[in-house]
Amino acid sequence: MRLKKIIPRLVLFSVALFGLAVEAHARRVRMAIAVPGKSEIVFVTAKEKGYYNEEGLDVELIVTGGINRLALIAGEVDFSSSGSASIIPILRGAPLRILYSSFYRTTLWLYGKAELRDLKSLRGKKIAISRMGDTTDIYLREVLRRHGLEIGRDVVVLAAGQPVHRYAALASNTVDAAVLADPSNFIAREAGFRELVSFLSDDTDIVHLSGSIVVRDALLQAEPATVEKFIRGTLKGLRFVRSNRAGTASLLARNLNVGEDLAGKTYDMFRPVMTADGAVSAEMQKRAVDLQLKVLGSKESVPMEKFFDFSLTQRISAELDGKTIKTSR
Q: Residue 144 burial by CB count (10 A; 0-12/13-18/19+): exposed, middle or buried?
């Protein structure tokens, strides 16, 4: 009788020791993200659902704001989520590679006063952006250029900082229009402001890669197994987000500190511009690079292999197609 009681205890003890051993030998991975919000929701999901743990990784998501690619270049982190923002550093010689991307459009909108009927009516007006040289500035310039308008000549831009401050500038009549992110776009719509541009729309056709996996060439060469595990865990997160609205909305509500109803609206907004398998087409790659070249005023012809390598992501995704991934947890 005593032996029968001891054996189950020994089994439980062995299982506990095995769990501790796995945890002790998990590879610590540091991932730099801008914010733990919608653009990085796939990484948050993969971490909270245990997908990285399944790969033997202990992933730390480090909120760095807009300097995550700089932290990667300096070797302070293993990965960065800044896809499009890494293109110019790569052009300038940074030894980085973009391996994966969750999104191929940016979730930004241009809202203006109700009397502004279209983009041409912005001539002589003031527009709030985040800061000079960032995404709000670059993409606004491109859209205006397509409609014959130039910042400095035809319109004035004011750096107003965070989305809440840009909306405040619009609501207070400090500016005539503002480049907004959610949930400010929902608030602006309810307040009667007019949507002039949706950067999510195929009409703008601006490729913006975010929620990406950017890695240093050195790590890719030295630890290919670690990179592969991180991509696999992330792809599991991508599949959860794409297929589970309720579960993702719950995570978004917590990470964005908003109600589940608004989180659901946010999900419905970004779900159509998620990649199917973490990769983007050769055409989209070229458009993403060409826009950054335009920012630099360069006409250089650069091979896409300098920036991107989605082959590993595509291979792992194909492997996962043959397995059942739990996405209902």
A: buried
